[in-house]
């Protein structure tokens, strides 16, 4: 066995030991990324209504808004805000961009600064949960979109410098002149690199719930499509490989902005470590830079998938050839963590292999599957690019890893994949093994059916993990189950009033938060937009009423 | 007597009844104001040290700063601010302009917004007095220069949008990423329309205290000289006629930016009411507009004084001719409040006749004096401009008003001017009557000497009122007293650590505030800069050591 691995590794012309494998490419790649930056479509919106918060156990997370019959956005311009003191506006949709406020004098001149607190939020509970005092170990307090603004001028539209994202805007009066009376004119300029779609592309008889899911999925993707594929426009506002992959799949069946995918692929390549290994996420400003903290083999392998899908969509041979060395380094690095054809999580350097937010989940089996899958994807791409000799060992290696996985990770008695020392049984381990072809259709059906009904199995806790479950169902012929699961899961968010799909969603627990505090959740999250992909890739399954 | 007044008023070609007396001039005047707007000199400053607040009964208002030996502005750039949490920096001088902050990453990437609270203040007590809860009836809470800033980028200098003014900068950490460590680089870009002076213009033997007063007076004026003569760069940041008058006098003996005086004169003229009566203050932005609330005959008459002084300085006949009708309307309006040669405060429309902040002060006598003075000034200016027939009645009218004042307001027994129904005796009533020539030198000396030593007389509470007292002393030959008073009064601020002279100052009460809250006081206030005027106009009195 060792011989085969050695043979495969020897085929790599690029070594992770090399000083700077992309030294001569880095700058050029970043230039291509910059040149591929899309223009943003800007649209000015007016608030649609004012609302009042209602605490309601039956509402999502215990809060909902209802229309305030006494105040309107028009009245807000004409009524002295010092009397109103506080208002909540509904922008009418989830928007990402810049808030403008203009103080309109009423029969008086502004003779002192005026101070307002504004807060934009995505969902009602986020707006109505007290934020302070803030627990020190949480994600940053400053993710919350509350800002204190001092106006020194009236009759001049003031743009809040911070880009904001959400639907509901609360405004409070904090201080100002006793003699200056003013109304407030509010507008919001949204930004996205997604074009306006002329048609929803759905079949005539498509069920309403699927229509809703498709519409909201596209709203989610639209909001996340900025000058990169962001993960969430409220939080974390950045490019992650895992999100990019799913967004690019959904993009194929909606906005088809393939240039954006190209930009993201080049950004990651241009920001790789000296040894060519990618960082899992990166930032665009003030100049493109990676977050050096995050090393994730799982995401690096999804980079391979993204380039393959991009190539399938565009046949852009130049880009694929150019980035081919990046693919090889990620694969080589992943394989360096393999012992006897099995992924060894203890190998240095250790990586954070994200597959789901669920606390305590073991992802070793998922990574085993993903490496096998990446070998196959790299082989397909390599063959298409004429790299025959470089990739010729991949199928054999994938086969040996498949055999090792079946031998060591497949519980023959239960037919389930187990993961880690504690032989954890989770839904996503089965799903990823199905995707990798380690389990065949029949085995996969059985494993998924069993694992989903076992009380003690670890269930997915995020739309991200759920995407791979739906995919696995479709791969092993569980079409009706996939349709039902997708409709129930994403439909659950629809019936909870979602304008965009959430980062974290568990039908059993509306208060689920990976951060221990629901206002920190991102309620418009890229990785949740993928129903678009399934609905349009499999119209016969999802768009028919049966 | 009535005949004479009627005669004088008949001489006015312009009537306050006219629909819009300046209809055809307004736009042209504002254009001249705009064309006279000075360029601002910008200078970048670095903080000089970090400081710690010390509560100290002997310090001004109970607080002082001492150098923090453990931290420096340089160290602040290199030390993780999340550990420091809070710092106070000393910019080294009172500055007006824009604060820049730059977050400098230390071994990590910024992966969440960072939120800081900053506060700039003029004096230590302002920085260390708790601001909240804020009493509703105070001036605006938002005058306080504390701002909450959300940084979304590191390594990018962020300029606080609000113009700030002061010397001490406090920075507090409010929230941010647990993994992002950063230092802070602070700089401040000051702005002024005052040029740098090459020499202090003082005699060689000038006493140190006079040197200090002159230096601080010039710093005060420099800070207030922006694109108008502001009253105070922290608060109220606007152009008032009364401040403009005193600033223009000090300007003559320092920066000599007469174009700025011209701009301010034209601004007021262009923003007058339709009947030609001026508003007491105005704003430049978003476009020039008056504060329609403020009607002050006292200030309107000082407009006349300002134009006369401007004409004396520049011999700018074109401007003086152009604005001559403005003079006449103000004078006519003031005279419309005169009955039987005595100012009648009950006449409609009633005006706020500011002469001092002292609570309960009666200013009727001051206004009587000021009208007499304005008649004389208008006569001088009118004669110089060839308006002989228009002004020929003024001296006689001034004389009749002087006689009436002496008859009705001069207490023959005490030799003191009394004011209002309660026959209030105040220092400033004497001072203004001396200025107007109602009291002669000898009478003035006696009145001032008496009133200043009387326990029950109303004393001045502001540098504004004190200016007119010093002037009166000099006018009636009390040179030594003027020198001593000026040195004691402004020197008292010097010894209290003033970087600039205060809006309100009473040697007996460091906690004096016209607003019931000392942090609201303006500690750099235009009307306090006038020692410049006295020191340089009378070098033999102030610049010699005797």
Which properties best describe this structure?
homodimer; 546 residues; alpha+beta; three-stranded antiparallel sheet; 40% helix; 17% strand
What does this protein look like?
The structure is a homodimer of 546-residue chains. The first copy, chain A, is an alpha+beta fold. Chain A has two domains: 2-39 and 194-542, Glycosyltransferase (Alpha/alpha barrel); 41-192, Jelly Rolls. In chain A, 40% of the residues lie in helices and 17% in strands. Chain A contains 19 helices and 16 strands. Chain A has helices spanning 2-10, 26-35, 73-78, 81-84, 124-128, 208-224, 241-252, 258-270, 297-314, 317-335, 364-384, 388-391, 394-409, 427-435, 441-453, 463-475, 479-495, 531-537, 539-542; strands at residues 41-45, 49-55, 63-67, 86-105, 114-121, 146-151, 158-159, 164-175, 182-192, 239-240, 281-283, 289-290, 338-339, 342-343, 410-411, 416-417. The radius of gyration of chain A is 25 Å and the shape is globular. Chain A binds chain B through residues 108-115, 134, 137, 139-143, 147-148, 150, 152-156, 161-163, 174-179, 235-236, 238, 283, 285-286, 289-293, and chain B through 108-115, 134, 137, 139-143, 147-148, 150, 152-156, 161-163, 174-179, 235-236, 238, 283, 285-286, 289-293.
